Structures are given as structure tokens and as C-alpha cells.
Amino acid sequence: MIAFRAQFEALYHQHQTEVYRYLRSMGLSPPDAQEIVQEAFLRLFQTLQSASPPVNPRAWVYRVAHNLGVDERDRRFIPDELPDPDRLPLLDDQTPELLLISKENARRLVEAWLTLSKQQRACLSLRAEGLRYREIAEVLTISTPTVGEFLQRAMKRMREALYD
Amino acid sequence: MTSNSPAHPDESLSLRYLDGELTGREASELRRHLDGCWQCRRNLMELQTTINTYLRLREKVLGAADPPTGIPWLPFDQLYPPPATPPPVRWWNVWKLAAMSAALVLTLLASVYLARNPVPKPRQPASPVAVTLPRAAPPRSRPPSPPAPVPVPEAALSPLPLQVRAAQILHELGADLGEPVVIVPSATQALVRANGLDPRRRQTIAAALAIQPGIEFQNIDPVASVPAAASPPTPAQPLRPKLFHAQLLNRLGSPAAVESFANAILDDSDSIAVRAHALSTLAELFPPDARLTASERAIVNTILATHRATLRRHVQSIRNQLRPFLPAAAPAENAAGAAQAGELDRLLNAAFAGAPLALSDPELAVRIQTLLQALDE
What we know:
Shape of chain A: elongated
Strand content of chain B: under 5%
Strand content of chain A: under 5%
Oligomer: heterodimer
Radius of gyration of chain B: 32 Å
Largest sheet of chain B: 3 strands, mixed
């Protein structure tokens, strides 16, 4: 039991920030996102001790967090996942790292992002967190080829925004 | 798509390539194409730059790895309740347990003692009074044996349940489909060994296996190979003309369509080889006489059934596509397994990718049909 708790604690520390970031990308506020992360990991902890533990705990916890996040988002009528491009603090940021992204490019990317469907954004955010296509499919309960299609369409939009 | 093909990869293929989602064959074909195509290399770089830019933007906009503002993360111990206290143990259960343990220990000690100190034969009585004893069989001369191992109940040592669980985990992760991950056959432990996996995939598999205590995961990073001394160039073997090429061209209309057709066949063949390998590995690990419980056997059977069904689907796909070109009847083959799947893959590569082979076209067609029939059954 002690070893199990230690393993689980490692899992919790390893993935809590990723899941939190994913929930923030859904437009949830920091306290809401944080609460859902803790709730999702609590459920994972209980499920792992059950007779049929999930085979891929990372995908499982993302799935639970995603579903809780969607419920919360619908409950609060959060319209869009990113703020108005004109009011992004990013555009006034002049750190050396951000100089790599021109203001114009950042604006175009955000505008392209806002035109994506919720599923496309979810795929993109989950991929950015390092999930494989199969894991994304598991989280969003869609097929793996569909994940590929969503990602391809999303990237096409983003790429056109930067290069066309 | 080959290096001398005019077909450029579409955006979906390029993205899956960057994401490491292509099969080995698809990726190597794409790499070959990229070697000779500036335009596609530029497209790929643009795609990668778009990904990089999106990631930087996302990190800034979302506050990336910033800890949540306002409320700190709850410490682990506050988030999760301590493990439930076990129910009080009744005194008669304690005695029962103690008695059983003592009996077990005594049995073990007695076994060890008897193994090391065989019971001496009764001496002949010293008295002159003759005593007739039944004649025992003469003792066999035995070489001195090492001390007998302490007998332990077999169930406690058998790694089979854990090996079944490992097979289940790998199957659900899709890691039993040609990835360099194996369950090492062993009578004493459940060991999963990976060889040269990319770090992220390795981490996923290790994390999934770690949930099940008792399964050991071992990763071996391949040692960077020392480049061999340059060997004299061998004369290139003349490539065999593709089987059915003229008929396919006539039927499909363009070289690009023929190539796409051939790629679909070869992809099916890849999948067949991978599934056949998975089936043969499982059969080796869990033969019919393996001492599995009913539920463990059910798990293994489910995995086997999945592989069989998928294999059969790919076999039927090839049969349907090649039906106009293959002989209607071919000699039957008794059994089919990984070896036949491997041979089929080799023959199809010869037929559709120009790999050299010492068979005439009609012989090749008959052999392909034989193998497809065998695998289908």
C-alpha cells in the first residue's frame, strides 16, 4: 500500500500541471481548473484500487478531467477558450522569448484558434500536452483517425494564418 | 510513395510523420521522398514552425506551467484519505492463523530435514537370534545431490497471472503490435523488456505497468552502433518487374493509382505480419496447458480473438483486392502462423515493391494465394 501510494503520488505530481493547463485551455478559471484536477485525481486514486483499474491512468485522468471541465464550462456558459486577441497581455510582452513571435503572427494564430471547433481545439491542446493520437481518442471518445483529421485541419488553419 | 514518385505527401501524412504516428514502412517511405524533394522538406519545416509557434503562444496565453493563482495545491496527504483501518481481528482467527503457519513451517522444516538427512536403514540386530525381515529393494546408488529447495506452494511463485496482466496492459496500449516490447518467458518472474523505445512511449508503458505491482519493466537502450568498415560496393541487383503491373495500370488508369493500390496491399501485409507475430508470442507464453484460471484464460482468449479477427480482416482485404489476379485454386497448406505471414509479406514486397525473388510470376501468384488461404482459415 505504501509503495502504491508512492507511485500514485509520483503520477499526481507528474501530471497535475499538464491536466490543469489543459483545463485552462478549455477556458476554465484557475480555481475551477484546480478543483477539477484534484477531483479527477481523487477518482483515479479510488479507481486504481478497484477490481478493474484503468490500463492507461494518464489517459483516464484526462478523460475524467475533460468531462468534468465540459460540465463546468456548460454550467457557466463560457463562450470561448481564449481571450480577445486585442487584449492579450502577450502583445505587450517584450521578453526575448516572445520576440520570436511577432505581434502580427500571434494575432493571426489566436484568430485562427478562435475559428477552430471545440473538438479541434481539444485535440490540439491534448497533443500539446504530449498525448498520443490513441490517448487523445480515448480521452475524447472518438476514433484515432478522427483525431488525425481534427489535428490536420487545425494545423492547416494555423499554418495558413502564419504563411498565407 | 517512393523517392522516384511524383506523389507528394499530403498534410495529414506530414503531421502524422512529425508526431511519430506513421508505421515504420510509411515513415521510411516518407523519409526517402523527403530526401529528394525540396518542396516537401520546406512544407514540413513550415508545419514544424507552426507547431513551435503555437506552443510558445499557448504557454504564454495560458500561463503555461504557472501554479494556479490564489489557492495552493493541496498536499497529497490532505487530498487523499489515509488507507482504511483493517477490521478488528477476532481472537480465534489469530489462533487459527498461527496454527496454520506453525503447521506450514513444520512441514517445510521437515521436508528440508528429510531431504538433507535421509532416514537410515535399520541395522541388523546384534543378537544372534535370527530375525527374518522382508527384503527391501536395494538402495539405488545416487550421486550426491545439492540440498533440495524448500518447497513453496506453486501458486505463490507462478508469474503466470502477472504475465497475463502484462499481456493485457500491453495489448490495451497497442504495444503488442510490432513495438520492441516483449514479455520475457520465464517460470519465475513477470518481466517486460523494451529495447530502444522512444522516451515518451517508454514512459507511457512503464507507467501503465507500474500500476500492477510485481511486473518488472526493463528498458535497454541500444548501444550506438559503430560504423562498420566500408565494404566494397556490391553491384545493384536488378529489380524484378512488379507483378500484375500491366494489368493494374490498365485497370486503375495511372501509375499513382497503381502505387496507391500497392501501398494499401503492403500496409495490409504489414498488419498481418504484426498480428501473426502477436498471436505466436501469446501462444508461446500461454500454451493450452498453461495453468491459468478461467478468468485469466478468458483474458488471453479475448486478446487472441482480437488479433485473429484483425488478421483475418486484412487477409480478406488483400484477397478481395487481388482476386482478379490470383489463381482461383491453389494447393492447401496445413497450418498458418507467423512464418507464413512473414513469407507472405516477403512475397508481396517482391510482387509490389520490386524486391528480388527467385520465383516466376505464376509461381509467385500461386504461392501468395496458398498463403492467403491458409491465413484466412
